[in-house]
Every structure is written in structure tokens, then in C-alpha cells.
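TA notes. Do not distribute before section.
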Amino acid sequence: MTEPTSIATPLFVRRPDIFYTLVDGELIIMSSDEEKFLTSNAVAAKIWERLESPVSVEDLCAAVLARFRGGDRSTVKTDIEEFLAALKARNLLMPAS
């Protein structure tokens, strides 16, 4: 009898060489690859903060739901996955090793 294989939960982390700041609760990121500034809201700022260390989508969901009451888990998870995909597409995010 074989043991079931476990699928590792992917962990994400922001690139350490990215310049960013928080202004009035909003996140501003300088994308040197695109030479553009990207701005986001307080929820994105919370996610970005947590991406300093390797973190899973599930852990990000829990952090957002704990900080910003009123969202449903499914919607929050979808929004986080979309935000992570946007960060990855702009080369601001990398898989944690």
C-alpha cells in the first residue's frame, strides 16, 4: 500500500530589490523593470507586508480576513490570487525556495 502523495502549498515572497512605500495606507511600488509606479489600496498593502517572508495564499487569506472584516473567504481568495498574478506578471513576486 502506498502513502498518498502530498502536494506542497506554493509559497510566495516579494523580490527583495523592489522599492516601495506606504502613503496614507496605500501601497506604492516602483517597478524598475517597467519604470512605472504601481499603486494599490490598504488590502494590497497588507498583502505586500506579509510577502516579506514566504507565505501561502491561505495564510494571506487569513491575514486579510482578520484585518478587514466583512469579506467572504472565496472572494478574498480570488482577489488575492489575482493580485499575486499581477505582481508575478510584473516580476515583483517570486516563488519562495
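Switch to the second chain here.
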Amino acid sequence: MYQDLTLTRSISHEWKRWIAECKLQNCPDQQLVDVLVQHGFDTKLASEEVANVSADPNYQAGEWVAQKLRKLNRWQKFGRHCQRFLPHLAR
């Protein structure tokens, strides 16, 4: 009997990694779900996988590091800004 492959298709490691990378770049969850659906995944499965990524301890650790890097980047930009306007402090 014919079975719809999009309903039984599982999400590969590569797709899960893509979801995590996009989430770390602050892509909206719905946008990720839409892309997965466009690539043949069931909407329910796509929504569940996108939600599951946030609950994964490995993702949470990566998110923590990404937040620290963004904060460091902001401080570096601020430091460059200060050096431009207050060059005597850069000595």
C-alpha cells in the first residue's frame, strides 16, 4: 500500500545541525519550519524538531557560547568607538 514519505521521513543529522546553526543566528522558528516544509517534511514533524533543538543540552551550551561571543563583539566595537573619539585613552 502507498504511504506518504513526507509523513514518515525523519530529520537527518545534517538538517538538525542546520536548525541549530540557524537558531544560533536568531532565525525565527517559523521561518525554519517553513523551509523544512518546503523541502518535503511534514509540518508537525518540522515544528517538533525545531522546538526539540532548544531543549537539547548541546544546543543550550552552544547558545551560551554564542551569547558570550556576541557580547564580546559588542564590547570590542565599543572599544574601537572610544579609541576613535578619545585617542588619548588608547596610549
